[in-house]
């Protein structure tokens, strides 16, 4: 191999490595943000399920609602 060819190849590999590191950092940031959002939504959904279960277990919750005043 020629020295210039080897130097050119090493430069190209270093550039690719730098680009890959940037992409990995971007993907990591995206995944972290998505995980935070999923976690927040999961907690919110669990709270809503709990509220629905509590509302269903209250006394009189199965009683029909009175008709609206305009009836």
Automatic annotation (TrEMBL):
Instruction: Outline the segment boundaries, as ranges, of region: Disordered.
Output: 52-71
Pfam families attached to this UniProt entry: SlyX
Span of the signal peptide: none
Sequence intervals crossing the membrane: none
HAMAP family documented for this protein: SlyX
Similarity field:
Belongs to the SlyX family.
Q: What is this protein called?
A: Protein SlyX homolog
Species of origin reads Methylobacterium adhaesivum
What gene makes this protein? Answer: slyX
């Amino acid at each position: 191999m020629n020295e210039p060819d080897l130097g050119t190849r090493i430069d190209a590999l270093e550039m690719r490595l730098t680009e890959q590191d940037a992409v990995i950092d971007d993907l990591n940031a995206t995944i972290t943000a998505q995980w935070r959002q999923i976690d927040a939504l999961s907690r919110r959904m669990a709270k809503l399920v709990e509220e629905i279960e509590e509302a269903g277990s209250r006394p009189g919750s199965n009683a029909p609602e009175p008709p609206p005043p305009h009836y």
